[in-house]
Amino acid sequence: MFSGGAVCLLVALTAVDRRSPTGGLIQGHMWGFELAIMVTMIGINSIFAAYEIALASVSLARLRRLADDHRSGAKVALYMKQNMEASLAVVQLGITLVGAIAAAVGGNGAAEDVAPALISRLGVSEGTAEVLAIALVVVPLTVVTIIVGELIPKVFALRNAERVCLTLSPFMRWFSFSVWPAVWLFETVVMGVMSWGERRLGSGGAGKPETVELQELRAIAAIARASLLIGHREERIILGAMEMQSRSVRTIMLPVEHVTTLDANASLADNLITAHLDMHTRFPVVARKGDPQTIIGYANFKDIITTMRLVPQEPTFRSIIRPILSLKDNEQIAVCLEQMMREHTHIALVRDADGRIVGIVTLEDILEELVGEIEDEYDRLPAHIVESGSSWVAGGGVSVDRLKAITGIDLSTDPPAAGARTLNDWVSGHLGREVRGGDVIERGVVRVVVRKVRRKKVQEAQVSRLEQGQPPNKATQQTDGV
C-alpha cells in the first residue's frame, strides 16, 4: 500500500540487519498489526469519501421516487439527504477519526521502529532520525490515503452515485446514532454560523432544497436541448411548469380595472354591442354598471348570440349569466389550474386577503405560462383596408405607409405618434393609455374611430377625412368598459 520508492527503501534497510537489537527497520508487529490498522483506516476513509460524493450527487426528487418504489436503503438515504447538514457532520467526523487513528499508528511505528534503525545504520542524531522516520512513514501514507482513500472512491461514487448512496446510507445512519452528541454539536455550530453569515450577507434561504431542485431541472432541460433530445418549445414547457409551482396567480392575472364587464341590468342587445367591440368570448357581469366589485358571474358571447336567435322578441340577459369561480391572489398557478380544470371553467376571479376582487385569470393565461403566447385569429392584428363610402375600414395591423398609399392620409409625421409603424401604434400613441372600443381621435383633417379592440389592441378602426372647416374635437373615450 505504500509508494514504490519508500517500500524499496524500507525493505532494503530491514534486510541489512535483522540481527540488530531493534530487529530491523520495521519489525514483525509493524508489518502485521500496525500495517493492518492503517490499511483498515484507509479503507474506512474511502467509504466515507465515496458516500459524501454520492449523497451530494443524487437529487432529493430521485430519492423520493426510489423510496416510493420501496428500493432497499432508499428511505434511509432520503432521511440523510433531507438532513444534509447532519449527514455532512457524520462524514467529516468519520474521516477525521480514521485519519487521526492512521496517523497515530503510523507515527508510533515510526518513533518505535524506524528511528532506532536509522540511528544505528546511518549514524544520524536522534532528532534527525525521528524526523526522517516520520517522513518515511507519513509521506507514503499520505499519498496512499489521497489516491486510495479519496480520489478512487470519489470517482467511483460519481459514476455510481445512486448505488453507493443506497448501499452505504444504512451504515451511515447507524454511525450517526453512535456519535450523535458530536454530530448534534457540529450541526448546531454550523447552522448557527451559517445563519449569522446569511443575516450579515443578506443571502438567507439561497440554499433551500426546493431551489436546488429547480436549478437541477433547469440544468437538465438545458442539457437535453443542447443534446437535441428536446426542442426550444419543449424546454419552455418544462421551465414553465417549474415556475408554476413557485409563482402566484396574481403575477399573471388581468387587473380588474382593465377588465371589460357587462351590465346585468342592461338589455341583451346593449351587452352584445359591448362584447362585440372587445372581441373576447367570456365577460364578467356586474350588478352595478362600472363597479367591478359587484361581479355576480360571467356571460359567454356564444350564449348572447344564441339567446337573441332563439327568443328575438323577448331576450333576457340575466338568464344566461353563469357562476364564476373565485381564487386567492396568493394561490400557486399550478393549484389554480387544477381548480379550474376540476370546475370545468375557463375564467375565474382573483381576490385578495380582504375578499376584494383584484383581477381575473383565464385558462389561456395559465397555459401561456407553459407554452408561451397563444395567438388565435384575432390576436394577430388584421391589415385589411376596405373603402366604405367616404371613409375606410382598416385593421389595426395595417402600416401607416400602406394607409397613406391607398387613402392619401399621412399619419407618420403627426406628433405625438410620429414614427408609428401601424394604425394600432398611432392610436395608442395619441391616447396615451389603453385603447377602448369606441375611442375617437381627431387630428388635423383625420378622424379615427376605434370599432373593435382585443387585448388592448386595435383590431379594427374607421378612418375618414374631416370636411374642410369642420373643427376637430379632443380625443374621447368610451366609458362602457375596457
Description:
Pfam families: CBS, CNNM, CorC_HlyC. The chain crosses the membrane at residues 35-61, 88-111, 131-153, 174-196. It is found in: Cell membrane. InterPro entries: CBS_dom, CBS_dom_sf, CNNM, FAD-bd_PCMH-like_sf, FAD-bd_PCMH_sub2, Ion_transp-like_CBS, Transptr-assoc_dom, UPF0053_domain. It is a multi-pass membrane protein. The protein is α+β, with helices and mostly antiparallel strands and 482 residues long. The protein has four domains: 4-191, no CATH class; 209-246; 250-371, CBS-domain (Roll), CATH 3.10.580; 385-465, Uridine Diphospho-n-acetylenolpyruvylglucosamine Reductase, domain 3. Helix content is 55%, strand content 13%. It has 16 helices and twelve strands. The strands form three sheets. It has a five-stranded antiparallel beta sheet. A four-stranded mixed beta sheet has the order 1-7-6-5. β8 (385-388) and β9 (391-395) form a beta hairpin. α4 crosses α7, α5 (84-122) runs antiparallel to α6 and α6 packs across α7. The longest helix has 39 residues, at 84-122. Mean pLDDT is 78; it is low at 1-31, 204-209 and 474-482.
